[in-house]
Amino acid sequence: MTAHGFTLFGTPLGTCGLAWGPNGIVGLQLPESSAAKTRARLQRRWAEAIEQAPPAGVQRAIDQVLALLADGTSDLIDIPLDLASAPEFHRKVYEVARTIPPGQTLTYGEIAKRLGVPHESREVGQALGRNPVAIIVPCHRVLGADGKMGGFSANGGVTTKRRMLEIERASAVGAGPLFDRLNG
Question: Given this model, what pLDDT does residue 164 score?
Fold first, then answer.
């Protein structure tokens, strides 16, 4: 995934970064502990990218991400992604994850079943752990079989995942409000 440009933008979670190429968004960096660390992480991941003002299509993607983080209901399904260099299995996992609406969750096992590989929930988790466009591919909406948070590779780990699900007022699959169960 070659990136031509990247930009930083403020969110309720902290300073995020977005990298893009000619065929779409190639990366969304969740906040590090500072804007400088987010920038440094983007520059390590996409060394060829130049920090610049986002073109109109990229700005629309940023606006959609900001809307989701503000209202918890916006859908990011139409943001064009360029995931051509991701392994095929990962791309399939990302396609399924993108269908999870805001406020809803699936388990790793449910995604594996939808892909026709019901015994590969661990592989689904590994693919989501390498998700280069978190939030746009909503890996935060994927939980363990027992409804537990599971891992989250972004800075802040499970706390960040929980915060994103709280913004969306998520419910666990087949249960009452997720956070009533986890916090009660």
Answer: 85
Please tell me whether the overall predicted TM-score, pTM, comes out greater than 0.90 for this model.
Answer: no
Task: Give the class (CATH, top level) of 5-71.
Answer: alpha beta
Helix/strand/coil for 36: helix
- What lies within 8 Å, CB to CB, of 127 at 6+ separation is 87, 89, 90, 93, 94
Please identify which of the residues 26, 139, 142, 178 carries the catalytic annotation.
139
Respond yes or no: is residue 139 known to be catalytic.
yes
Q: Which helix (H) or strand (E) holds 98?
A: none
pLDDT value of position 158 = 73
Sketch the domain layout of the chain as residue ranges.
5-71, 88-183
* Fold annotation for 88-183: Arc Repressor Mutant, subunit A (1.10.10)
CA distance linking residue 170 with residue 151, whole number of Å: 17
Below-70 pLDDT ranges, the chain: 1-2, 150-156, 171-184
